[in-house]
Amino acid sequence: MTATPRGAYPRLTIAETVAQLRGVGKPSQTAPLYSRLINRPVGRYLAAFAFRLGMTPDQVTAVSGTVTFAGILLVALVRPGPVLGLLVALLLVLGYALDSSDGQLARLRGGGSLGGEWLDHMIDCAKNASVHLAVLISFYRFADAPPPLLLLPAAFQLVVTVMFFGTVLTDQLRRSRSAGVRTPPEGASLLRSVAVAPADYGLLCLGFVTFGFRPVFIGVYAFLLAGSAAYLAVGLVRWRRQLSALDAG
């Protein structure tokens, strides 16, 4: 995607751009709690700054990936400690907020591109898999971990990989089958956002604050794994029912 000349858009203040982004952004009511209350609002401000700088969505995606993978490499290569945990959490949280801002910036500019969506999804896929691989490497190198402990990041990687593929595949199948058909929106409530919160990547990012305190981190990590596995189990049933309903229709 090529950069659009700065003069092609009206010169708006950050506050005006953020207000405009609220009107073109995806609805947050069905998003997990962290994404709903923190990540998308922060991403909105980052998108406004990127818009002022004349950046393209692909450029923001590239920055997001660079920041995120810097944090993931630190997890794998550096001995855990309190300072490292804070730095990793900061990088992952920033990378995740930028991941939200690229789509908001694309909608503000009038819509994204297939190439941009492909790049965003490819980086998301690599990120979801490699963060747990980095935890496994860290456990193996620095924790003198018994073999059962290594199963935690291995299981987490399996869960998020299946979840990511299932989400993308189901969405594509729904689009192809229900073109021109109005799909009822999912129920939106604060309770739902809280219920699906443990499966939110943003909470995993925050969890790395405890990375320097191994027993605490293992407990947090295991809790998020259990929440993600439960969300996946429910999602598999829901996705199958949705697609079966489209088949029947």
What does this structure look like?
With about 250 residues, this protein is an all-alpha fold. The protein has a single domain, classed as Up-down Bundle (Four Helix Bundle (Hemerythrin (Met), subunit A)). Helices cover about 75% and strands about 0% of the residues. It has 9 helices and no strands. It is globular, with a radius of gyration of 19 Å. The N terminus is likely disordered.
CATH superfamily: CDP-alcohol phosphotransferase transmembrane (TM) domain
Largest sheet: none
* Percentage of β-strand residues: under 5%
Structural class comes to mainly alpha
Radius of gyration: 19 Å
Summarize the helices and strands and which ones pair or pack:
Blueprint: H1 14-24, H2 33-53, H3 57-77, H4 82-108, H5 114-142, H6 147-177, H7 190-195, H8 201-207, H9 214-248
Helix pairs in contact: 1-2, 2-4, 3-4, 3-5, 4-8, 5-6, 6-9
Provide a compact summary of the structure.
Helix content is 76%, strand content 0%.
Defining traits:
mainly alpha; Four Helix Bundle (Hemerythrin (Met), subunit A); 9 helices; 0% strand; globular; disordered N terminus
